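Lesson 9: reading folded outputs for more than one chain in a single document. The general rule is that every protein is listed as its sequence immediately followed by its structure tokens, and records are never interleaved. Here is the first one.
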Amino acid sequence: MFVPQRSSCVLLLTVALGNLPGQRQVAIRAYPVEGIKYDPLPAIFTRVTRGAVKEASLEITNLRPVPLKIGEIVNPSRRFTARVETLEEGKRFRLVVTLKGEGPAGKQQDVLELKTNLDDAPVLRIPVNTIVHEKVHSFPDSVFMGRYPISEIRGDPVMAKKRAQILMVYRDGTDQFQAKVTSDIPFLRITSERGPKGDRYENTIWFDPELAQPGDIKGNIIIETNEPEVPKLVVPVTGQLQPK
């Protein structure tokens, strides 16, 4: 007996995020249907820089004995368009999403509904996760420096560096990107390394082990760039250095 698609579930995926070291776990919402396979994921993730257009896709494979027919696509978003291409009649399909770099910047999730001929699953629901970036953008969009006793780093530059955070700054579509990265937190130290393609900077951020003071950390990283449309980007910084 096939299970009707009435509820969603949360899947945990381990992924690499750009040039950041290590991997991260990402939770995604999905709407599984028995006998229907989504590849590579049961959701679409895509991002685009303002002014650009980008396509992303997934494949839908019907493992049931009954041929699958996909009809109308119900799209609640004006941010992207969607189409279904038939790869093998009744068996394999490709869902293609075209994201336009227009409208408000930031993250958004919408759920596409693909109407089918299946009695127990008349609709296939596909979450579409999109990000529209400004021409200059950072990852992450805020920095948390951690919460730990100041004694862990006091007088120990090696440990202070181990507690460092990474902030990536991007300007897609150029090899001439220039950025100067500073902070209004007096004891925050930053080293910047320009990427080999000239379109990004990797910034290592840590507390000066001699000058750091206990208390709540709240301030900003200021990124000055040579991009006329985004001459300055401000990234919030938070954390806590405990007195003991």
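And here is the second record, again sequence then tokens.
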Amino acid sequence: MARGAAVAVASAACCAVLAARRARRHAAVVVASAVSCAVPAPAGGQTATTGTPQALFTHQLATDPATAPDVRAALRARGAFVDPDITFADVTGDGRQDAIVRVDSGGAAGAIAVYAFSADAGTKLRAIYRNQHVDRALVAVNGTTLLVSTPRWSRGDDLCCPSKLLQRTLTWSARAKRLVVRSVDAVPA
């Protein structure tokens, strides 16, 4: 019973963070999100198994001081989780696989953060891209190009159905030693 109470508290904390983010964007979305966050996510179903890529990246993000405090707190409280569907692709062009990781809220907000990790300059894993304040982020890789899409709602759009997506195109910059945004386009959803 104590675990269930902890999950409910973590879920409420995550919902509060997400609601605060959305308040800046669209009042109607806040109301819809608060209603969907009212049901706590199942305990254990979103816990990373030790020794998996999901567990590795959960630990990496939860202990990295550069991770946004709200994302780190949600991971530690199990109010959010590293999506087990991690994309491995060579986005740095060095012939080694890099990892594209999404942190998911488990609720209507979907993926709330996107990271790319690489060991491009040696063996130490490091974040080469961070987008830590998004909702419902989608990722795709095309060769060495990373595409990160987020919804852009217009007046009258339902939460499920934004009329546009904001698509960021990122590629590796050897000079900056990270992924950099090359273009941002609004595309039909």
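What the second record shows: The two ends are 42 Å apart (CA to CA).
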